[in-house]
Please model this.
Amino acid sequence: MTQTPRGFDPTNVPPTQPEAFGAPDAGEGSGAASPAAGTDLVPGTPAAATAAGRGEGPAAGAPPTPAPDPERQVTRAGMVWAAVASALVVLILLIAFILQNQEYVQVKFFGLEGSVPLGIALLIAAVGGGVLVAIAGAARIIQLRVAARRSRATR
Model:
């Protein structure tokens, strides 16, 4: 597939190129298929982009994406519902994992020793890792807020 060069105007083909648009010996009156000013252009094609740049064709005044349906707007309540639904799915998968891994394992941590179900031990380890990530994230957020406050004070 060939690409159309940028700035190429398909309606302004010099007469010295009779094989324009793949039609051999396409003259002025041969009836060969070539785009004209009033033809429909497929949006997203180079010809449509060129026509849109000149202010011609159907893509000239059309928005690049369709307007969102006013009945389906994203709301905070909808986002919270989606987050809760996702969390419930993850929680169900976590419960299934813990129930399937009930074998007791020996755990040692800084001199403490004990026997715990494998699923619970892994859950405790994952929660501990999450707490460490949350602490690092909170420290970074505080650092950015202090820097933003200082930059506002110097203005």
Notes: Helices lie at 46-54, 76-100, 118-154. The radius of gyration is 32 Å.
